[in-house]
Design goal:
The protein has 303 residues and is of the alpha/beta class. It is 41% helix and 16% strand. It is built from twelve helices and ten strands. It has an eight-stranded parallel beta barrel, surrounded by five helices. The chain has a two-stranded antiparallel sheet with strand order 8-9. Helix 4 packs parallel to helix 5 and helix 8 runs parallel beside helix 11. The longest helix is centred in the middle third of the chain and has 22 residues. It starts with a helix and ends with a helix.
Length: 303
């Protein structure tokens, strides 16, 4: 075993429906779920996320059979929230969260990835609300996220990991730091997505070194710096930016993943690092060879 391979023994690599161009529970332009499961296993991944609720089977027994027969295990589920709107949206949010959390728990996973709501539509680019939160909305976001962490932990035994994301209110270094400083580390951890953080101008290694105890989960992706520069200059919404190829196959983009993985390893914690190369929409034959090459590249990094 090489020294680099030995050095990343705390990192568990997986992939997700997102890397197969899946953003929605049902969309004719997306790869069918059986093909995703077949190909993610064939590409060499052992762990997967559930993706949008309803894309994979939601009956736990059936999903367990489909995954185990392919040698796959589930690392996390994903929920979408608008918690900066305060207690008024709690019941609607919890109805969505509870469905996903129950399936996630039934599949033996420990994490629930929490994505904040978009301030502009990821398909159409329509501006839905102000991109800057008021102080009151920040208080709602922090307080309601802590409540979510408490409830998800108490009722389902899961740990929430909040995912900074382009075109949401938790995006840049400034906003991520503000969110982390405002929330209880015992209730709220972070899912650091290297591509989204770079997209929004952040430095993933610096974030890991500054807020290491808050990093509970990783998404691995890269951005194409040339496409990103045009996207930023022209204020292109996230969905159309993805269609332009702003998220690219590693190691062609930024950030370099080797230093990110090394910094994560130094935290001394067991961490999932799930490959998520946003590609919606994409031809059905495009994801598998990229996934296979990406797995090979990550092995070369020691992961």
């Amino acid at each position: 075993m090489t020294s680099s391979a030995a050095s990343l023994n705390r990192i568990r690599i997986g992939s997700a429906p997102d890397s197969w161009g899946v953003w929605f529970p049902d969309d004719p332009r997306q790869v069918p779920w059986r093909r995703f499961l077949d190909e993610v296993a064939r590409a060499g991944y052992e762990w997967i996320e559930l993706g949008p609720y309803g894309y994979l089977p939601t009956d736990p027994a059936r999903l367990a059979e489909e995954t185990s027969s392919r040698g796959l295990k589930v690392s996390a589920g994903t929920v979408f929230t608008g918690l900066h709107h305060g207690p008024a949206v709690w019941e609607r949010t919890w109805a969505h969260v509870a469905r996903v959390a129950a399936l996630t728990r039934a599949m033996g996973a420990d994490h629930l990835v929490v994505i904040p709501s978009f301030w502009r539509d990821d398909k159409t680019g329509e501006v839905l609300e102000d991109r800057t939160l008021t102080p009151g909305q920040w208080r709602h976001l922090a307080g309601q996220t802590e409540r979510l962490g408490q409830e998800v932990g108490d009722r389902f035994g899961l740990r929430i990991v909040v995912h900074p994301h382009a075109d949401t209110h938790i995006d840049s270094e400034e906003n991520v730091s503000r969110f982390l400083d405002a929330t209880d580390p015992d209730l709220v951890s972070l899912c650091l997505d290297t591509g989204h953080y770079a997209y929004c101008g952040g430095d993933s290694v610096k974030l890991i070194e500054t807020y290491g105890e808050r990093i509970g989960y990783l998404h691995l992706k890269q951005v194409d710096p040339e496409i990103l520069a045009d996207v930023v200059a022209n204020e292109v919404p996230f969905g159309p930016a993805v269609a332009r190829g702003v998220m690219c196959e590693p190691p062609a983009g930024v950030p370099a993943l080797e230093p990110v993985l090394a910094a994560a390893q130094r935290l001394g914690a067991e961490l999932f690092a799930i490959v998520e190369q946003d590609m919606y929409p994409c031809p059905a034959d495009q994801p598998f060879p990229i996934a296979e090459r990406t797995r090979r590249f990550l092995r070369s990094c020691g992961a």
